[in-house]
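From the pipeline queue, job 12 of 40. The input is one protein chain; the requested action is below.

Action: predict structure.
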Amino acid sequence: MAMTALELGLRGAVVALFLVVCAVLLLRYAAVHRAAHLGAAMGVAGAAYAISTAPFFPASSFGWSSPFIAFAMGSPVIFWLWARAMFDERFALRPWHAAVWTLLAGLGVVSHNCWTIWPDLAGPCGRALALATIAFAVLGIAQIPKGWRTAVTTARGRILIALLIGIGLQMMFAAAAGLAAIPTRSISLSAALALGAFALIAIWMMLFDPPESQPAVAGARGGSGQAAPVARSLANAGPPPSSQAALNHLKHLMATERTYRQEGLTIGVLAVRLGMPEYRLRTLINDGLGHRNFNAFLNRYRLDEAKAALADAGQAEVPVLTIALDAGFQSLAPFNRAFKADTGLTPTEFRRRATAAQTTNAAEIARSG
């Protein structure tokens, strides 16, 4: 009983930690990093797994326990999608991804709840679920080579790789234990400890990450004329001399040709235009210019253009949506989120303040004249 009480307490702490992970991701990173929502979903899945594998959790019930089982058993798909979002610049969520998650979650609910009712159905579903879990864990770990050249250059990136591998291996171990019919109780406490370790590492990475890992727009509040100090200091430091020619070419494409407006622009497309390997362009953007990732780099140019247009009295009647689309954003919602993160104001508030400042300046000039 003492061990059971200890495990239940540990699992309660793990659930709380995963909820903290979700809150930090959604409040701090959702506006500037596309993987934040998938990371939060991983946190929900981790909490659900800690609950659904705990002692005394109902072994067969299609009632209130089913959502916990669904989120827990569908976690390998979320893990794979999160890994793709972290390491693959071309990744985008598709409707069929939800269908795959639903299928895996359904297998989990059936295999968990049907042992006493339809054991002939629960057995094959459980084996299919275990094999699918191993497959998606392998697919998630297989995303690392797509971005490892950049990730291994920073301590945070190396920890991220280790975290991803650890989660994938834990999923494979749990699935293999199920295939081998190893009693759940014999690995239950170790699984809870592993979950707690993953949650603590994730929280440490998000709350205590080094300055160069911060999103380029996360600390800026442009409405008062302040700039993000980390991004600006790194940008002013500049790349090494060997990269100066490449940097000049990159600045020409972005500032003069306004390539950031191009629809569907990816780091691979830009690397081809620059005539350099993709990993070298990543290094130039991350280390040379101080941007967290390619999307933050693009948004810096897009937001600067949008702010200039919103502050232009000659464009006072141009809709905000038009300005956002002209600057390269695909829709209004991500533009509003990125703009608010960068300036602390909505686009409409920013335009109103700029107009008021111009009116005040014009009145002062008229009085002095």
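Job complete. The two ends are 87 Å apart (CA to CA).
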